[in-house]
Amino acid sequence: MTLDEAQQAVDTWIKTYGVRYFSELTNMACLTEEVGELARIIARQYGDQSFKAGEKADLSEEMADVLWVLICLANQTGVNLTEALEKSLEKKTKRDATRHLENEKLR
User: Which DSSP state fits 1?
Assistant: First the structure.
């Protein structure tokens, strides 16, 4: 699935099952919540914390939840994520062409 297809699939789902998009402010709060859930799993799986009894550890589900809400925000604000990502890659390539290669900390 491409980013364009993902944006269309989420839009179709919202219009079919979701009634309407939540407000942009609500979706921003939802995105923050989902990133927190992802961070919790990362902290337990790769950091120093341990899982609590009965706590789930589905990293892919949490990443998908973050992506879902981000796509919702992109759809409601008219952002084409494919174009945005292409511009971001171009910007980072120009800005950081040698920066990381020359960083002694990364060797």
Answer: -
Q: What is the pLDDT of residues 39-85, one digit of tens each?
A: 999 999 999 999 999 887 899 999 999 999 999 999 999 999 999 99
Residues 6-20 have pLDDT tens digits of 999 999 999 999 999
What is the b/e burial string over 5-15, where b = at least 16 CB atoms within 10 angstroms of the residue's CB?
ebbeebbeebe
**Could you give the count of Cα atoms lying within 13 Å of 97 in the half-sphere of its Cβ?**
4
CA atoms 2, 4, 6, 9: torsion sign: negative
According to CATH, the topology of domain 3-80 is Helix Hairpins (1.10.287)
Token code pair at residue 42: 């990362």
pTM for this entry: 0.91
